[in-house]
Every structure is written in structure tokens, then in C-alpha cells.
Amino acid sequence: MTVGAAEYDVAVVGAGPGGSAAALALSRGGLRTVILEKAVPPRYKTCGGGLLGRTLDLLPLDVRAVVERECFSAELHHHGPALSFATQRERPVVSMVMRDRFDHLLTAAAQDAGATLLAGAPVVSVAARADGVELKTKAGAVSARFVIGADGVGSVVARQCGLPELRDVIPALECEVTVDAAQFEKFRHAARFDFGLTPHGYAWVFPKREHLSIGVLTTRRGSCNLNAEYARYLAQLGLAGPLREERHGYMIPLRPRARMFDAPRVLLIGDAAGLADPLMAEGISGAIRSGQLAARAILENGFDDRATRRAYRAHLGSTLLPELRIARVLARLIYDSSRARTWLLARHGQRLSELLTRVVMGETSYRATLGEPRNYWKLLAAR
Ligand SMILES: Cc1cc2nc3c(=O)[nH]c(=O)nc-3n(C[C@H](O)[C@H](O)[C@H](O)COP(=O)(O)OP(=O)(O)OC[C@H]3O[C@@H](n4cnc5c(N)ncnc54)[C@H](O)[C@@H]3O)c2cc1C
């Protein structure tokens, strides 16, 4: 054990939604928990900041104080051929946040429950021993009986544990755009998704309190220049002209690590484990869910290394992973075959939008939707 290292039951590396959700559950379960965060919260995070209904359902706290706008409607637009569909709900389909305030709120909730936050403390090394882990950070050493790696797509924890690089990490561009009142009015009511413009991907407009978060992503690296795609999208939206904007690029991991969500005394969650939804490139719900599952595995297994890791894999295998597998197949269909996408949307666009809305609202799952024979009959009947 490193002399002078602060000692905890669990060290959570990263104060994103996954890390904070895990720390909250661990602290409420009575464990001495520390969150080690590279930045000093609140910090900007490149993200659309769209919280789906299913994401809100996971959270054991009220986050409305940081929600900038609730969208009760979602629009799906397709280009070439031009098709448009909209769904409407009485509950918000997407709640819009800025990630600095949202993440900070979750971290503060974990602190209120008893977790310690060490901010400005990037973890630089992770070394497992028989009964715990030694971590070195730029702000000092910490030892813990377990580590949760919640440090995102470039996970230092995963690298330090010798795990291979994540596969299918895709680029995305996010721009915070201020437009005039007339333009804002056109976009402020709905979460908007556009397909058929960006090769192998989609573009979006998420209205915040006073500005628009506009983004583009492609699921096939190297297939296009995202800056050029973004400019094309703005022109399509009629938002040409000099705009006040901040542009940020980052990566999203769309493929779970191949059965490698853990190493001795370490569990990986969220983007560090590759748990974003491959169809929507939405990662906050996977991060929160896996954080809660990792906390549960630790709380239920009395710090037994093997039992805890086995339990975490089993929890992921019975919940998140089957969903991500189905989303991956759907993503390939939608993003890699423009003919299949056009055919599906031209014939069943409204029904598919409704089904997808039910999934994002947490009213059903991909698995339940595909396993329900009535859905196939409805699609056939709609021809
Ligand atoms: C352009 C874009 C748009 C997106 N839009 C959406 C959206 O609208 N909705 C949605 O659900 N998802 C969206 N995502 C995906 C989403 O942002 C991620 O899936 C989500 O943030 C993952 O959460 P996490 O807790 O796993 O990791 P992160 O949110 O990445 O948090 C990781 C934390 O770890 C810290 N950290 C990193 N390295 C270290 C270290 N060595 N030591 C200590 N701390 C460290 C970081 O500072 C950070 O705070 C988007 C992503 C991108 C790129």
C-alpha cells in the first residue's frame, strides 16, 4: 500500500453521469466512495445534452432544475427522398440540458450522499494488488478495494489494466449556436433528427433555453468531413450567414468491449466500456445504468473480486447488452443501406417513429418490440 494514500472502499474515476450515478448508489449503500475527476466541475462536455425519457426514469433524483427545455415532440426528417414524421407525448420525449450543469448536479447528489470528490485529479496509473487497487493522481495517491472506471471513451483505467482499445469509436461534431429570435422560434418546439444527409449518420437540432445545439455524426469513420457536413446541414436548415457559434468535436464508442468490462478489482462503465446505443449514439442512459449495475455488483458481493466481476457481467448480460446488440443490427440497416432505410421510412416511417419513441421513452425495449408479433402484423397491414 502506498504510504500516505487516502483509503476508500471504492474509487470512481470520472465524474460524468456514469461515475456520479455509481458513486451515488455506492454512498447510499454505505460505502466510503471517492470520485477522482480530471477537470474541475462544472466543466463543458461535448454532447447534445438530450436526456431521453428512459434516461430520466433511471435517475433517483429530480433533475428538472437543470433542464433547459422539455421537448414533447420529436421530428424525424429524411432527405432524398424528402419525408417527415413527428411524434408527440404528454411527457417530454427529450429533456435538454447543458452537460456542465447536469453532470455537476449528479456529482453534488453523490457528495450529499457521502461521496468525496477530488477534482483536478487526473488518474495517471492504476495498479491492482490482491485486496485492492493503488491509484496515482496528479493530486496524490488513493487506495481502494475496488475501482470503477468511468473515465469515458479515452479511458486511462482501461489502458492501465491492459485492455485493448475500444472498437467502433465514431466522430461527432457538436455546435452551440446562437440564432435570432425568429430562427429560434422555428426550432424551439421539438428535438429534430435528420437522416439521409450525413453519410452513414445523422444530424440533429436540440433547442436549449436560448440557443440551439446542432450536431452531425457519422458511424463510418473517414467517410466524410464532418465540418463540411455541418455547413451543408446549416444551409439545409436555412441557417446560413455568420452565426455566433462554439464548435466542439469528440468521439462516441458504439461497440461494447468484447466481454472485457472488468479486470482484477476494476469494473468499467459507460463510454469506458463502450456502452452507447449504436442506433442513436446516445450514451447517457447506458452510462447511468451500467454505473448503477456496477455499484450493485460491489454492494452485493462483499468485495469478493471474482464474485463481483461475475455479477457485473451477469447484470450487463441480462439488461444492457442484448439491447445494444439489437440496436447494432438496426443501426447497420439504417446507416449502411440507403435503399433499406428509404424503403422502410417510405412505407412505415410514422409507425417506426412511434415505435422508436416508445423505446426512447422507456415504455418498451428494442427486445420487447422485436419479440412482439403484433408489431410485424401492424407493419404488414400498413403496406
Ligand atoms: C457530439 C456528441 C453528442 C452527444 N449527444 C448525446 C446526447 O444528446 N444524449 C446522450 O445520451 N448522449 C450523447 N452523447 C454521448 C454521451 O456524451 C456519452 O455517451 C456520455 O457522456 C458517457 O458518459 P460517461 O459517464 O461514461 O463518460 P463521460 O461523460 O465522458 O465522463 C467521463 C469523465 O471522466 C473524466 N476523466 C477522463 N479521464 C480521466 C482521468 N484520467 N482521471 C480522472 N478523470 C478523468 C472526464 O473529465 C469526464 O468528466 C454525445 C456524444 C457526443 C460526442
Question: Would you kindly provide a written description of the structure presented here, covering whatever features stand out?
Answer:
The structure is a single chain. The chain is of the alpha/beta class. 38% of the residues lie in helices and 28% in strands. Strands 1, 2, 8, 9, 10, 11, 17 and 18 form an eight-stranded mixed β-sheet that branches. Strands 6-5-13-14-15-12-16 form a seven-stranded mixed β-sheet, with helices on both faces. The chain has a three-stranded antiparallel β-sheet with strand order 3-7-4. A hairpin with a 2-residue loop joins β10 (132-137) and β11 (140-149). α1 (17-28) runs parallel beside α8 (284-300). It is globular, with a radius of gyration of 21 Å. Residues 13-19, 36-39, 45-50, 122-123, 150-152, 156, 172, 174, 215, 250, 252, 270-272, 276, 282-284, 287 line the site of flavin-adenine dinucleotide. Flavin-adenine dinucleotide (FAD) binds at residues 13-19, 36-39, 45-50, 122-123, 150-152, 156, 172, 174, 215, 250, 252, 270-272, 276, 282-284, 287.
Provide a short characterization of the protein structure.
By secondary structure, this protein is α/β, with parallel strands linked by helices.
Mind sketching the topology for me?
Blueprint: E1 6-13, H1 17-28, E2 33-37, E3 50-52, H2 53-58, E4 67-71, E5 73-78, E6 83-88, E7 94-97, H3 99-112, E8 116-119, E9 123-129, E10 132-137, E11 140-149, H4 156-160, E12 169-178, H5 181-187, E13 190-195, E14 201-207, E15 212-218, H6 226-237, E16 244-253, E17 262-263, E18 266-268, H7 270-273, H8 284-300, H9 305-318, H10 320-336, H11 338-360, H12 366-370, H13 373-381
Parallel strand pairs: 1-2, 1-11, 2-8, 5-13, 11-18
Antiparallel strand pairs: 3-7, 4-7, 5-6, 9-10, 10-11, 12-15, 12-16, 13-14, 14-15, 17-18
Flavin-adenine dinucleotide is lined by residues 13-19, 36-39, 45-50, 122-123, 150-152, 156, 172, 174, 215, 250, 252, 270-272, 276, 282-284, 287.
